C-alpha cells in the first residue's frame, strides 16, 4: 500500500528525492475518452501516467505504448501525463463524478477496498480466466487485488527490503557482513564508537519511510509468523513479542544507530544517506528494492569516488527468527473502471504489461521500471543488466521465507498510526508498550470491519 | 470628441409601477445589468466555494471515507475532536503560529514600511527586494531554507543546532521561514497606506517637536489603522490555513511537533481515508476564521473605520 496521498509509489517518490533516477509510476490509468462504436471494439484508451523523468516517459512511449498500439490498433492508447501530486486526487474526484479513467491506478490495498466498496471497479475474474492471469502473476501478489472474494486489481510491480553497503567500509574495519543479531549489533556498536553511522536513515524526504523500518523490525525481530498471526487476528500487536521487538528497535534509534541521532533522522535526506554509505561515513542503508535505481549515481565515477555498492539480506535480529526473510510488497495496482466504455481494451492494456517478460527485463535494465510480479527467468533480463540488480531480484524471487510490509498488508488507519506513532516512540512521547497497544487498538476495529488485505498462503 | 450626455426630461413619464420617475426605472435596469455581469462570478463561487462548502458541512456529519458514500453519524466527528490529542495539539500549534505571525512579520513590516516611507531614492528597489520572497514559489523558498538550516552543511551546522529536527525548535523555525516569505507583502501594503497619510500632519508634528517615534505612534499608526486591522485579520485567517511550509519542510514532524490543523486534515482525508472527520476539522477551521472576520466587520461598523 502506498501511503503517499500523491498517488506515487514509494519507489517513485524516492526516485524524485534522489533526483535523477529513471524509474517512475507505472500505475498508468487509462480512460477519459468517449469510445464511439461498439463497446470494446473501437475508440481510444487514454492512459494517465506520471514519470520521474522525460527519459523514462520516452522509454515508456517508445517501448510500451507504441508496441501496444501496434498490437491493438482498434482501441489505441493515448498517453496523458499527469502530475504525481494531483493524480490520485484527480482520479478520485473523477470516479466520484461517475467519470474518470478506464483503468484505475491504485497505490495499494487500502484505497482499493474503498474503490471496490463504492462500486468503482469492474470485477476482473472473467478477464483473469480468459487471459490467464492466474497462471502468470505470482500468487501472493494476485491475492492483494482480491476484495470480498472478487479480483478487482492487478499488481503493477513488486518490492522488498534489503541492506545496501559499501564492501570497502566493511573491509577497512575488519567487519564481515552480519548474519544475525549479535554480529549486526556488534558492528553497529563498534561503528558508533568510531563515529561512523551504523545505518544511514532519515525521513526528511518522505515521512512514510518510517514504516519501512517498522516493517523490517516487525518481520526480522518479532518474526513473520507473529506478524501473520496478528494480521489474522490470532494474536495481538500488543503481545510481548511485539512490545519486545519494538523496544529493541527503539533502542537502535535512541542509541543513534539509525541516522546518527534521533533528531538527525528527521532531517536526513535520501541522497545524504547514499552519500554517507559511499564515503564510508555510514556502514549500512536499509531500504527497498526501489533503491536499486537510486544508489548508482552516488558511487564510482558518477559519484566522484571509487566506491562500490553491494546488497545483502537483512539479518535475523532475534534468536529464533529465520534468516533470509524477504518482505513482500506491491507498489501499485491497476483496475478497470466500472464505467469504462472499453473494458475489454482496458483488460488488454493491463494484460500487455504481463505478456513479455523480456520487455519487463529491458524496462528494468533501461529505465529502471520495477518488474511486475510475474514469473521471470534469468534469461528474461538483458545481459548488460547490472548483476547486482538481477541477483537481488533472483534472491527475492526465490525467497522461502516471506515477511509482510505494512504498506501492503496492513489496513489504512493502522498503517497511518504505525508511521505517525513511530516518531512519538523514538522521541519518547510513547513507550513501546503504548505504541504497540495503540497499534492493536487501531487494528482491532479494522480487522472486524474486514478491511485487512488478504495474506498470501 | 465630447463625452456623451444623458438628457433627462424635466417631466419624466410615469411608469407602470405607480408613477415612479423614469430615473428610478433606469436605476433598476442598471442594477439588473450589474447583477448580470456578476452572474459568471456568482456561478463560479457557488460551484467552487458555496456548494463544496455545503458538502463539507454535510460530510462532517458522516463517516465518509472520501470514496463512495458515507453514513450519517451526527456530531460524532465533532465530539471525537474534543478528545483527539492530535487535534488539540494541532490547534495549539495554529495558535502559536498565529501569535508568531502577528508579532514578527507585523512589527518588521511596520518598521520596514515606515523607514521606506522616509526614503526618497531607490524606494522602488527596496520595495522590490522586500516583495521578492513573497513571489517566490513556496517549494523553492522551502528548499532554500532547508539547505540553509541544514545541520550538516548550513547554519545549523555552524551553530550546532538542528532547527527542523529538534521538537522544541521546529515549529518556531517553520513559522520563521513563513515570516520571511510573508513580511514583504505586508511592507508593501503598509507602505501604500502610509503614503496616503497627509504630509501636513508630519510637518505640524515636527514643528511641535515630535520625533520620528512619536510621529509614528501618534500619526502613522492611527492613520493606517483600517489597513492595520485588516492585515491583522487576514494574518489570523492565513495562520489558520497554514499548510505549505509545514508540509514541505517537516511534514508535521518531528513527532507531530509542527502538525497544524490543515496537515492533520490532509492526513485524515488522504492517509486515514477519514474524509468525514477531515471535513469536520475543515468546518471548525472555517468557524474560527468566520469568527475573526465577523468580529472585524462588527468593529468596522461600530468604529466607522471607513468613514
> Helicity range of the residues of chain A?
40-55%
What is the β-strand count of chain B?
A: 0
For the record, the CATH architecture of chain B stands as: Orthogonal Bundle
Structural class of chain A: alpha/beta
Number of helices of chain B: 13
CATH topology grouping of the largest domain in chain A: D-Maltodextrin-Binding Protein, domain 2
Output the structural class of chain B.
mainly alpha
Rg over alpha carbons of chain A: 22 Å
Strand content range of chain A: 5-15%
CATH architectural category of the largest domain in chain A: 3-Layer(aba) Sandwich
Number of helices of chain A: 21
Main sheet of chain A?
4 strands, mixed
* Largest sheet report of chain B: none
Number of domains of chain B: 1
- Ends apart, CA distance between termini of chain A: 19 Å
What are the low-pLDDT stretches of chain A, counting only 5+ consecutive residues below 50?
A: 1-40
State the end-to-end CA separation of chain B: 37 Å
Keywords (chain B): Cell membrane, Membrane, Transmembrane, Transmembrane helix, Transport
Domain ABC transmembrane type-1 (chain B): 91-296
Main location (chain B): membrane
Transmembrane segments (chain B): 32-54, 95-116, 128-149, 169-192, 228-249, 275-299
Describe this structure in words.
The complex is a heterodimer of chains A (457) and B (307). The radius of gyration of chain A is 22 Å and the shape is globular. In chain A, the strands form four sheets. In chain A, strands 4, 7, 12 and 13 form a four-stranded mixed beta sheet that branches. Chain A has a four-stranded mixed beta sheet with strand order 9-10-8-11. A three-stranded mixed beta sheet of chain A has the order 1-2-3, covered by helices on one side. Chain A folds into two domains: 210 residues, Periplasmic binding protein-like II (D-Maltodextrin-Binding Protein, domain 2), CATH 3.40.190.10; 167 residues, D-Maltodextrin-Binding Protein, domain 2, CATH 3.40.190.10. Chain A is 46% helix and 13% strand. Chain A has 457 residues and is α/β, with parallel strands linked by helices. Chain B is mostly helical. Chain B has one domain: MetI-like (MetI-like fold). Chain B starts with 21 loop residues before the first helix and ends with a helix. Chains A and B meet through helix 3, helix 4, helix 13 and helix 20 of A and helix 12 of B. Chain A: This is ABC transporter substrate-binding protein. Chain A: Pfam families: SBP_bac_1. Chain A: Keywords: Cell membrane, Lipoprotein, Membrane, Palmitate, Signal. Chain A: InterPro entries: Bact_solute-bd_prot1, SBP, TAT_signal. Chain B: This is Sugar-binding protein. Chain B: Keywords: Cell membrane, Membrane, Transmembrane, Transmembrane helix, Transport.
Amino acid at each position: 500500500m502506498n501511503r503517499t496521498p500523491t498517488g506515487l509509489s514509494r519507489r517513485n517518490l524516492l526516485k524524485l528525492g534522489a533526483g535523477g533516477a529513471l524509474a517512475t509510476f507505472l500505475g498508468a490509468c487509462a480512460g477519459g475518452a468517449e469510445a464511439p462504436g461498439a463497446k470494446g471494439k473501437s475508440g481510444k484508451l487514454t492512459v494517465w501516467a506520471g514519470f520521474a523523468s522525460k527519459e523514462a516517459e520516452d522509454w515508456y512511449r517508445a517501448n510500451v505504448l507504441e508496441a501496444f498500439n501496434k498490437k491493438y490498433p482498434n482501441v489505441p492508447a493515448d498517453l496523458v501525463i499527469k502530475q504525481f501530486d494531483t493524480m490520485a486526487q484527480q482520479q478520485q474526484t473523477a470516479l466520484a463524478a461517475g467519470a474518470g479513467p478506464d483503468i484505475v491506478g491504485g497505490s495499494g490495498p487500502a484505497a482499493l477496498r474503498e474503490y471496490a466498496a463504492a462500486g468503482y471497479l469492474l470485477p476482473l475474474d472473467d478477464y483473469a480466466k480468459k487471459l490467464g492471469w492466474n497462471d502468470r502473476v505470482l500468487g501472493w501478489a494476485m491475492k492483494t487485488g482480491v476484495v470480498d472474494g472478487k479480483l478487482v486489481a492487478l499488481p503493477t510491480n513488486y518490492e522488498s527490503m534489503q541492506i545496501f553497503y559499501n564492501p570497502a567500509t566493511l573491509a577497512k574495519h575488519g567487519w564481515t557482513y552480519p548474519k544475525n543479531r549479535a554480529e549486526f549489533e556488534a558492528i553497529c556498536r563498534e561503528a558508533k564508537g568510531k563515529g561512523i553511522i551504523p545505518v544511514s536513515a532519515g525521513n526528511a524526504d518522505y515521512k512514510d519511510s518510517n514504516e519501512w523500518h517498522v516493517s523490517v523490525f516487525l518481520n526480522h525481530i518479532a518474526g513473520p509468523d507473529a506478524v501473520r498471526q496478528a494480521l489474522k487476528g490470532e494474536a495481538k500487536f500488543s503481545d510481548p513479542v511485539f512490545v519486545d521487538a519494538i523496544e529493541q528497535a527503539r533502542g537502535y534509534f535512541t542509541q543513534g544507530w539509525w541516522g546518527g541521532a534521533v533528531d538527525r533522522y528527521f532531517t536526513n535526506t535520501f541522497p545524504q544517506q547514499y552519500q554517507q554509505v559511499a564515503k564510508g561515513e555510514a556502514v549500512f542503508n536499509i531500504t527497498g528494492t526501489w533503491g536499486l535505481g537510486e544508489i548508482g549515481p552516488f558511487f564510482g565515477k558518477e559519484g566522484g569516488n571509487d566506491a562500490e555498492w553491494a546488497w545483502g539480506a537483512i539479518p535475523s535480529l532475534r534468536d529464533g527468527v529465520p534468516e533470509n526473510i524477504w518482505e513482500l510488497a506491491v507498489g501499485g495496482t491497476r483496475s478497470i473502471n466500472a464505467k469504462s466504455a472499453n473494458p475489454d481494451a482496458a483488460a488488454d492494456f493491463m494484460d500487455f504489461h504481463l505478456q513479455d517478460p523480456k520487455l519487463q527485463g529491458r524496462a528494468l535494465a533501461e529505465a529502471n521500471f520495477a518488474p511486475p510480479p510475474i514469473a521471470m527467468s534469468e534469461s528474461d533480463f538483458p545481459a548488460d543488466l547490472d548483476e547486482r540488480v538481477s541477483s537481488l531480484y533472483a534472491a527475492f524471487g526465490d525467497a522461502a521465507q516471506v515477511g509482510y510490509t505494512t504498506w501492503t498488508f496492513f489496513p489504512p488507519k493502522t498503517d497511518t498510526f504505525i508511521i505517525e506513532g513511530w516518531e512519538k516512540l523514538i522521541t519518547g512521547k510513547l513507550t513501546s508498550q503504548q505504541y504497540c497497544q495503540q497499534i492493536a487498538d487501531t487494528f482491532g476495529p479494522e480487522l472486524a470491519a474486514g478491511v485487512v488485505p488478504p495474506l498470501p498462503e | 470628441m465630447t463625452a456623451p450626455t444623458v438628457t433627462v426630461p424635466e417631466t419624466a413619464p410615469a411608469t407602470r409601477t405607480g408613477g415612479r420617475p423614469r430615473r428610478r426605472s433606469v436605476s433598476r435596469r442598471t442594477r439588473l445589468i450589474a447583477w448580470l455581469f456578476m452572474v459568471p462570478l456568482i456561478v463560479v463561487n457557488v460551484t467552487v466555494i458555496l456548494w463544496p462548502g455545503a458538502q463539507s458541512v454535510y460530510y462532517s456529519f458522516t463517516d465518509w471515507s472520501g470514496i463512495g458514500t458515507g453514513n450519517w453519524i451526527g456530531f460524532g466527528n465533532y465530539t471525537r475532536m474534543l478528545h483527539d490529542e492530535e487535534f488539540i495539539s494541532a490547534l495549539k500549534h495554529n495558535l502559536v503560529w498565529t501569535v508568531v505571525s502577528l508579532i514578527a512579520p507585523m512589527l518588521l513590516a511596520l518598521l520596514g514600511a515606515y523607514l521606506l516611507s522616509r526614503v526618497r531614492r531607490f524606494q522602488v528597489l527596496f520595495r522590490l527586494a522586500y516583495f521578492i520572497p513573497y513571489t517566490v514559489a513556496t517549494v523553492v523558498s522551502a528548499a532554500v531554507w532547508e539547505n540553509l538550516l541544514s545541520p550538516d552543511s548550513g547554519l545549523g551546522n555552524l551553530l550546532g543546532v538542528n532547527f527542523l529536527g529538534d521538537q522544541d525548535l521546529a515549529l518556531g523555525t517553520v513559522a520563521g521561514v513563513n515570516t520571511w516569505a510573508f513580511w514583504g507583502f505586508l511592507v508593501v501594503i503598509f507602505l501604500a497606506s502610509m503614503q496616503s497619510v497627509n504630509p501636513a500632519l508630519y510637518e505640524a508634528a515636527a514643528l511641535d517637536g515630535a520625533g520620528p517615534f512619536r510621529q509614528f505612534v501618534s500619526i502613522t499608526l492611527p492613520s493606517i489603522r483600517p489597513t492595520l486591522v485588516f492585515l491583522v485579520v487576514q494574518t489570523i485567517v492565513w495562520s489558520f490555513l497554514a499548510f505549505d511550509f509545514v508540509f514541505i519542510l517537516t511534514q508535521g514532524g518531528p513527532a507531530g511537533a509542527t502538525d497544524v490543523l490543515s496537515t492533520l486534515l490532509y492526513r485524515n482525508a488522504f492517509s486515514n481515508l477519514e474524509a468525514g472527520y477531515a471535513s469536520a476539522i475543515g468546518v471548525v477551521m472555517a468557524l474560527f476564521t468566520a469568527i475573526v472576520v465577523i468580529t472585524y466587520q462588527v468593529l468596522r461598523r461600530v468604529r466607522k473605520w471607513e468613514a
